[in-house]
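User: Need the bound-state model for phosphoric acid mono(formamide)ester:
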Amino acid sequence: MAKTLYMWFHETGEQTMKAEAEVMPSDYSFKQTHLIGLAGYSADDIRFVLQQASYFREVLNRPVPKLPTLRDKTIVNLFYENSTRTRLSFELAQKRMGADVVNFSSSSSSVKKGESLKDTIRNIESMKIDMVVVRHESPGVPQFLRRCVNASIINAGDGAHEHPTQALLDIFSMKQSVGNIKGLKVVIIGDILHSRVVRSNIIGLIKLGAEVVVCGPKTMIPLFVQEMGVRVSHNLEECLAWCNVAMALRIQLERQQGGLFPSLREYHETFGITMKHLERYPDFTVMHPGPINRGVELDNDVADSDRAIILDQVTNGLAVRMAVLYLLSGRRDLG
Ligand code: CP
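Assistant: Bound-state model below.
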């Protein structure tokens, strides 16, 4: 009989964590086989992933932070775009769970000789893989892979579409640091137009009952965003006075197509969070998905202050990715 996660915990004498107060409906079962985006997950699916992530977060505090529940799985990390946090934490999560891991980087592969995405993935599939973690600059690539590959697909960021594990780790971190998501006041500041992080966060936070405001220059806030159930503001002071959590987004210089704001200095003066803001509004928590443009979205001292939970987000990302890998591997028999 396959071991359940519950059995692994109890075999090692570990107490299960009760950090998550979520009580899942008695008839709930997790039926997802891919993670393309949070748009395809119900509020209960999101709650369930977060609940399981709290088990894995506890594993990370052990002297030997391993749980070899994916020993029979082979996972490919298919990264067509640069990444530090997402790629390393997926790889570490897979290794901590005992999976066989293959890393693919487009810059050192036969993509450079002109091989198509479809041919690349069909060749990788022939090596008998179970799961694919994919990051790509084009929105829709994870969906495309889902149709042409017999493996579980996890979206690690597709263009400006979604970055679901980032939103899950952000929501997990809010819950851990601030409390219940229902009724939580969250402002997301910056480049809303180009951000897959903001789309996934809005979808997840609204499903869980948070109030969300997006704040930034008019040129960086698309019209459709209000249809997602958020309010729009261009006044950072008002937002910081109101919110429990302020999440600053990276200005994506590589995706800017000219002139969305006059200069980085002016952006910082209008939308950057400074130490003066922390002093004036003593209650909000600072988040950032990384990488930070220091001195643009956040002052250096703000990024390093005890009001910022940016490195906790990274640690929690490991636990969230372990939970996602575990659940999508077909192991849904948790205690
Ligand atoms: N937050 C995030 O996705 O960071 P990386 O691009 O470094 O993975």
